[in-house]
Design a protein that fits this description.
The protein has helices spanning 10-40, 47-68, 76-109, 117-138, 155-191, 197-236, 244-253, 257-267, 269-274, 277-289, and strands at residues 141-143, 148-150. It is mainly α and 328 residues long. Helix 3 packs parallel to helix 5 (155-191) and helix 3 (76-109) runs antiparallel to helix 6. Mean pLDDT is 80; it is low at 295-306 and 308-328.
Length: 328
């Protein structure tokens, strides 16, 4: 296939495709690593970790769709690849938003809503289907440079089904995450050194949980900067040549979500302490000898209390079953 973006410089298309596949491949490996650790250490027993697991699965499938991306002519193969990219891009975004919303409930409203988990799945796997199917039924998918997406003649559709919602959600997440961080650190400072040891401990645990979970929305926000700038530039100069440096940055950072998530997950204090040969060996032994409902007994103190049906969080600030437990 000829290069539609740089017809007289096909080496640029080759370079962009190679960078995109390299970045996406790193994300695939990162997501597999993240999912493996959650399985190995049975972290899926905890609500917050299950949200990270779901984000990892969505990012894995999104990375695979980027690897599939190529310079296809119009047709069913191009439409299928464009649909998959749109669907899993939306799924990753929805999981990041749900993590932010859950942090808002935990840090600001001081409530723990594990029963929302099924609704998170409905939103994050169902809503993307609607957004990804709209261009497909409208016939707006097609070649869009070095991959297939909403075609170059459908700029209004690009902004209607992706960039306008993305702008709104990113703006909301920036405001929410900034307020969450300010609120949590303010509370931690207020209770530090007080005589109320229980409230001080709860505040510190909440601070650690927020730091742990807040990394994933922040990663998404940072990685979205270059693709956003590129598409805005692309739309404002649609009849001019493509900005090659911006395109290069876009194909590097766009598919990198999974790899960065894996790094953030591995650098979490509790996970990092367990990435030793002894701990990994113990975890494998536990997987081979213990049933799926049994809790590992070598978890660190700051690990979450596992979700147990019918059991209220033991360190909850109140007796209400829906109240916050910063450990989960």
């Amino acid at each position: 296939m000829s290069c539609p973006l740089f017809p007289n410089q096909t080496s640029r298309c080759t370079t962009v495709l190679a960078l995109k596949r390299t970045s996406a491949s790193l994300s695939v490996l990162g997501c597999i690593f993240l999912i493996f650790l959650i399985w190995l250490f049975r972290k899926y027993m905890f609500f917050g970790q299950r949200m990270i697991l779901s984000l990892g699965i969505a990012a894995l499938l999104d990375s695979v769709s980027y690897i599939m991306g190529d310079i296809y002519p119009e047709g069913q193969l191009c439409d299928a690849q464009a649909f998959l990219m749109s669907y899993f891009d939306w799924s990753v975004l929805c999981w990041v938003c749900c993590i932010t919303f859950n942090l808002w409930l935990l840090a600001i409203k001081r409530v723990y809503r594990k029963e929302y988990e099924k609704w998170y799945h409905i939103v994050c796997w169902g809503i993307p289907l609607i957004w990804a199917a709209a261009p497909l039924f409208g016939g707006h998918y097609g070649p869009a440079g070095v991959w297939c997406w909403i075609d170059n003649n459908s700029y209004v559709w690009r902004f209607a089904v992706w960039y306008v919602p993305l702008f709104i959600l990113i703006f909301a997440m920036v405001i929410s995450n900034s307020y969450i961080m300010w609120k949590v650190y303010r509370q931690a400072a207020e209770f530090e050194g007080t005589f109320n040891q229980e409230r001080e401990t709860d505040s510190k645990l909440l601070k650690e949980e927020v730091k742990r979970m807040l990394a994933y929305p922040l990663i998404y926000l940072v990685l979205s900067i270059c693709p956003l700038i590129f598409r805005i530039d692309n739309a404002s100069h649609k009849h001019d040549s493509t900005n090659y440096p911006l395109l290069v940055l876009t194909v590097i950072f766009g598919p990198l979500q999974g790899a960065c998530n894996a790094i953030a997950f591995a650098l979490d204090n509790e996970t990092w302490r367990r990435l030793t040969w002894t701990e990994i060996k113990l975890a494998f032994q536990s997987r081979s000898c213990c049933g799926p409902g049994q809790v590992i007994h070598n978890y660190q103190v700051d690990d979450a209390v596992p979700d147990t049906p019918g059991q209220s969080p033991s360190s909850s600030p109140s007796s209400d079953a829906g109240s916050m437990n910063p450990l989960t």
